[in-house]
Design a protein that fits this description.
Shape: globular
Structural class: alpha/beta
Strand order of the largest sheet: 3-2-1-4-5-6-7
Distance between the termini: 15 Å
Largest sheet: 7 strands, parallel
Number of helices: 13
Amino acid sequence: MRILLCNENYGPVGGAEIYMLDVALRLENLGHEVGVLHDEPVDPALDGRRPSFQVPGSLGFFQDQSRQAVDEVRGVVRRFSPDLIYEIQALNPAVSQVLSEAAPVVRYVMDLRLTCPSGRRMPRTWDGICTKPFDAHCLWKAHTQLCMPRRPDTALKVWNKVRRIGLVNMEYDRLLLPSRYVRDLLIAGGFSAERLEVLHLYADVDEKITANRPARERRIVAPGRLVPEKGFECLIEAMKYIKEPSSLEVIGDGPGAASLRDLAAKAPERHSITFSEWLPRERLFEAYARGRVAAVPSIWPEPFGLVGIESMAHGLPAVAFDVGGISDWLADGKTGALVPRKDIPAMARALEAYLTDYDLAERHGAAGRADVLGRFLPDRHLNRLVEVFEEVRSNSTV
């Protein structure tokens, strides 16, 4: 099968891109021919690896509609002649319309942009998560909750683009979703449940980590991007409620790093808080091996929360706020602990339970790894993905 992958970036710059590159390689290993349509320049390390077509202004949400970009995408489709198109991050409604007219389209919905103009579902005027579906009321919220630009013309432009993207995507042959949370949001927004399917993301489990157990040291491991919605401020605040001397290792980088370091300097002296920039795979494995428990303190509604199943694959129990799609992979009281959003004392209690009870950490860590091996491996994802491709292709009239 000739498959055209569509993503704004073609390089390992984020979660969607890492997923796309891994899926591309796995599809090629199964004998499929893969091409990539992208907006931004190709990563030099990938140049020439497979057919790729850069069309500036074609896939980004903030790109203005361009007739030239639309015409160039038509040319790409004619030259590559795909049997199927797999969209990952593609948010230009005019281009998506062209793609849907050329071949059957399957989309993996990696984010919340189809359900919210800001893509975050977090109003700026009150502390919480928006539960309303995307509709005309979002225009009013632009003023009352600062969800979008306050200028009426700009807000209308953003809102209308989300609306148009949604209308095109409603006609796609299949939308694959990382969690029940994203599925339910789309259904509430008018998408047909028959075209939606939850297909969880996966962890690439190395055989040498499958015997890992939680470390004896009282250490919390917390990987993630250092931005406000990832909730690291809450995690550091939770340390003052933990009585037993413990260590917290924060792994990642981002614009919030300096303020988080300042906050960590005020933590009780009985604790040690260290920061590492994002680590390559082998060193990240070593960090997990040093941990007793993993923390996923996101306060925004994660569509899935991949770092959670990665830490569970290493035999660590996980503690997370109960937001977004996290409950799809974290079973409270079995593989870790789910606590109410931003309940810092509750997060501290959950973490301390594992820090002070090694047997509990080992038992829940083993259950979590078994769950990952049973539900969140690449082969399971890829096998179903290819089945979906074949079903859509056989039923398509394009």
